[in-house]
């Protein structure tokens, strides 16, 4: 591995091989840290990297590009970014932009503290100025569900060298050279015309234009998904044909979800849980009911039972 010149104590200090870490060759040098700290995500040794999405994320880390990863839920968008960061030893924190995240959560607020026995008012910085000053990958999850006031705060830092002004403090924060910004969305910023993702909304196109890269992540091919499941539920290696049927069942729910026939979908995580539960209960069909079927709308269970019949030739809902 080639060493980088270290200009900051908290700077990347080596170049890594994408073939060794991610399973494909790439011409672009990718910087990384040689040591881990508490904000580096935990490593998942069995994680499968989709090459195109991984290249987009690596470009974000290597060249300070603002990257959005878009795709259906359950495709592992946030986890993909975190697992890239884990292999680069790059500190990474994730914020879910639900309706409870406010402008003050991001920017900061005045708080009352006790100092020398007296109450004093001090400014407590929010997550955004805290992260900006560090070599940190900040991931905004469910970006298309963010409140308008929150989105305009984020817009300030979307420029690659965008400085952030804390008006309450009369302070301008210059981003750390190795601060990186990512986001994940279920839509592409145009709103949700399908009704599948309630709570999402159109994103200001001036803001979307500031994102340098938009990557798309889809569900894994069956053989790749099988490898992922086997890495977590090793006992299924003796039941590969059953596992193929399980993955086929999951793909039918995904297609049904995309078509609007059902409102609940099986993610790779669901298949892993199903496999693990089948070992606990000793019954693949009971495990399916406990893992997935009982979560589904009663009006949709007949459709799911039809999918199951196709894959296992069994009526999962007895007459």
Structural features, described:
The chain is α/β, with parallel strands linked by helices and 319 residues long. 37% of the residues lie in helices and 16% in strands. It has 12 helices and 11 strands. It has helices spanning 18-22, 51-63, 77-88, 103-107, 127-132, 148-155, 205-208, 222-232, 240-259, 268-281, 284-291, 301-312, and strands spanning 14-16, 30-32, 67-70, 92-96, 108-115, 118-125, 137-141, 164-166, 171-173, 180-185, 213-216. β8 and β9 (171-173) form a beta hairpin. α9 crosses α10 and α10 packs across α11 (284-291). It is globular. 34% of the residues are buried.
Write the layout of secondary structure elements.
Elements: E1 14-16, H1 18-22, E2 30-32, H2 51-63, E3 67-70, H3 77-88, E4 92-96, H4 103-107, E5 108-115, E6 118-125, H5 127-132, E7 137-141, H6 148-155, E8 164-166, E9 171-173, E10 180-185, H7 205-208, E11 213-216, H8 222-232, H9 240-259, H10 268-281, H11 284-291, H12 301-312
Parallel strand pairs: 3-10, 3-11, 4-7, 7-10
Antiparallel strand pairs: 1-2, 5-6, 8-9
Helix pairs in contact: 8-9, 8-10, 9-10, 9-12, 10-11
